[in-house]
Amino acid sequence: MSKLQSLTSKDVKIRDVWKDNLEKEWERIRDIITDYPFVAFDTEFPGIVGTPTGAYQSKEEFQYNQIICNVNILKLIQVGFCLTNAKGELPPGGDIWQFNFE
């Protein structure tokens, strides 16, 4: 079984993507996607502004519904993702992306 190495902040370069550099970053992604075809992503929302009503079977069911409730009423503010190869290695330079929305 292979061991995956832990990454440090020195190994990662966060690339903030806005409207003015969107095309440049897509070009970079297109250049490396064939060699780094695995994608991990996350999303960012402004917070929690709503609480679902109703009876829930568990704390987890309530929490899930609270997330769904807020995702449905709030605007997405950021999508982050990274590309890796089959070994879990980042592209040269350790690039990961944060796509920012207004």
Describe the overall structure:
The protein is of the alpha+beta class and 102 residues long. The chain has one domain (11-100). It contains 2 helices and 4 strands, in the order E-H-E-H-E-E. A 4-stranded mixed sheet has the order 1-4-3-2, with no helix packed on it. It comes from Panagrolaimus sp. PS1159. This is Poly(A)-specific ribonuclease.
Biggest sheet strand order reads 1-4-3-2
User: What is the number of E strands?
Assistant: 4
Distance between the termini: 44 Å
Count of individual helical segments: 2
Protein name: Poly(A)-specific ribonuclease
Topology:
Elements: E1 13-17, H1 22-32, E2 38-44, H2 59-73, E3 78-84, E4 95-100
Parallel strand pairs: 1-4
Antiparallel strand pairs: 2-3, 3-4
Organism: Panagrolaimus sp. PS1159
Protein name: Poly(A)-specific ribonuclease
Give a quick summary of the entry.
It comes from Panagrolaimus sp. PS1159. This protein is an alpha+beta fold and 102 residues long.
How would you describe this structure in keywords?
102 residues, alpha+beta, 4-stranded mixed β-sheet, 4 strands, 25% helix, 25% strand, elongated, Poly(A)-specific ribonuclease
